[in-house]
Amino acid sequence: MKVYQRLAQAFVGEGVTATFGMMGDGNMFWLSEMHKLGVKVHEVRHEGAGLGMADGFARTTHTPGVATATCGPGVTQLASALVTAARAHSPLVAFCGEYPTNDDEYVQYLDQARFAEACETGFVRLVSPDSADETVRKAFYLAKLENRPIMLSCPMDIQQKNFEDDDPYKPSSTIMRRGAVHPDAKALEQAADIVAQSKKPVIVVGRGAQWSGAGEAVLRLGDRIGALIATTLLTKTFLNQSEFHAGISGTYGSRPAMKLFEEADCVIAVGASMNRYTTEHGYLYPNARYVHIDIQPHVMLSGGRGADCYLQSDAKIGVEELEKLLAGRSFKSTGFRTPDVKARLQNHNADRTEFQIEAGTIDPREICLMLDQLLPPEVGLLSGSGMTSGFASMLMTRQRRLVQGGHFFGCIGQMLPAAMGAVVATGNKPAVLLDGDASVMMHLAEFETAVRYDMPLLVVVMNNECLGAEYYKLDAKKMDKETSVIRCPDLGKVGVSMGGKGAYCTSLEQLRSATAEWVKQPGPMMIDARISRAVPSVPYRRIHYGRDE
Questions:
Q1: I need a surface site. Which of 120, 177, 211, 437 has the fewest CB within 10 A?
Q2: Is residue 164 classed exposed, middle or buried when 0-12, 13-18 and 19+ CB atoms within 10 A define those classes?
Q3: Per the confidence metrics, is the pTM higher than 0.85?
Q4: Rounded CA separation 178/70 (Å)
């Protein structure tokens, strides 16, 4: 067989069921073979979007997503998506063609190792036919070990050579068997002492808690110690079945929750990095002692400080062991769990500030509240990272099977591909993406990809016909905000022209009707919801105007 055929067999041996990318002469033979082997090959319109889809797949499954691009210019198109995936800690393997080893003047020559390094991406090169298995195994091993993208760079001439070995491929799982990580007994005792001495504890859960299945253990610990439950921005609504769920910890948190967080004397961080956004630059928990539970050997808190007690442990095991130890001490505390606190948390995310809404536009807050009620909980919810993301993050509080944000690199344009990858990862279950017009326009061509693969994805474009972040920043500086305005076509019609469904909405009633149509029969649909520029999101009011409610 040829080397490219063996490489395809190795990917299948790693459990790959889907790829995302664009065919070129550097990867076409491998892609053709992947198709023959039964892998679902998603052909996209832009290489960067393909990697974004693989990123969304990886975030959803927490297993390696697979992207592909041809050599040179195909690789350079991956830049923003690679950095975004690296910041998201997404395990990902990008199969990339590379210029022939015997032609340094090849027109698509690129030093792909240096490019990968600049994009915070690992790099593995295929150097000979007999190293094919080892190369694939190493790429997947590193992706899982380091939780980041790995570029697998395969020279075109080596792919065409013969592969002589017919032994079965040994996947990376044969050399990487992760065991459960239990907390150190002495550190666990110290953590229990800190918690037992506290009167007002808060448990902050992040993606590590979700990935480990720590939910029930966190709820039991919270009940025992009387803790508020809070989340990072990326795990919003996780465990909000608790009556004492205080929502997001950080800039996107509600004012009533922030006031409660300021009273905390103990924070138990579970699978959460506690970065400057989650701690609001250290202002949220000024007098608290920290117990930090994380699978990493150590994680530094915001401001360059360490936790008062750090437990390296699987999140679920660490919380279970801590709760068990406190139970053994017969420790039980009311903590924050009082009628007064419960009353303060009632509808605490409400945004009651009044704005004059322009004719022919919709209040974006009303859009989020309506969608949250109309969309069934089995429908996944994804949102972008621009100004409009603040509305969805703070106001859409219903617990769902899938909730994801796109705040990893602060760049717009990445969430339409990521949402498509998430839909594939869940076996084509329905999902909704809320994103701004400038963001959706960046990869608008990929809506046609969603149509081609009949993805049940509803894209709700929060369309204020401007670069939202820049509009309010310019306004706050009393500069000409109109320079950020960019007129936009009817994106509902664009969706229809690409073969999907579409709607143009200037009222809440129109939006409700269009959404109900999609709920009844999910498929690729784009709703262009024209929103008012009069309403900045709460985080933007806080940061740029010094206002809150």
A1: 177
A2: exposed
A3: yes
A4: 33
